[in-house]
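Worked example

This section walks through a single chain of length 275. The input is the sequence exactly as stored; nothing has been trimmed or padded.
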Amino acid sequence: MVIFIDIDGTMRDYRYGFMPSSHTALDRAHEAGHTLILCTGRTVGMIPYDVPLEKFDGMIAGGGCHLVYRGKVIEDSFIPDETVSRYRRYFEENGVPYQLETVEGVFMTAEMGEIMRELLFYGEDPRRSEYAGLRTERIRIDRRIDELDRMGLHSSKMGFCLTPAQYREFHVPDSDRLKYIVFDDEADEYYHCELIQAGRDKGTAIERMAREIGADIGDTIAVGDSMNDADAFRAAGTALCMGNATDAVKALADHVTDTVVNDGLYKGFAALGLI
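Given that input, the structure is written out below as tokens.
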């Protein structure tokens, strides 16, 4: 089987980091002869330091923008710079906190940095945090948008936060060729949103990776916990959802396992007979 595995909430917890049972699950799956592909909405520069990249045969990053299999780059694409500039003007004119994600990391407005600090670090200074997950997190909330401009980097994804009023008015024209994702975790008063390239989501990436490997799509499994895994669930032969997902995400899956902190990945692999 070819197993496509999300990071956050699937193998790794924001507070406690990469779960020991996830290491065991990956090791035993490899021993059983399965192919393991990292499948994350994070861009390459945002993958946490504690993720054991050496245990994977390939990678889908940026929600489908960057595909690598056994050292070979299959695809590396970006949102057109002129499209990014237009949305940036809209965000700035309307006071929308936003971030741009690149292969070198994530770059935020000051307002977005404060929102992410509260969400990821629970209001704490991450340098003093006792949580393993935060110590190994690559997201830096002090990397500002103007730094990205000076470096001349291209964006794979745009993330932003809308108030309820802004959410009702926000619209993405089909002509922009962008996929609009809204997360439903209700973490705070904002709608947390992403824009990625249309036709380059986790689902299309799984299909392309399967062709590259020479695997039948029926022999693929997608494992995840969030609405940005929905396309992966639809594309793969089997969808395995974590117990910490919302009911809407669970409804898209073939199987639901335990939560990430309760060894959900390992239990899910075992339930499917993979290990």
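What to look for: Residues 81-93 form the longest helix (13 residues).
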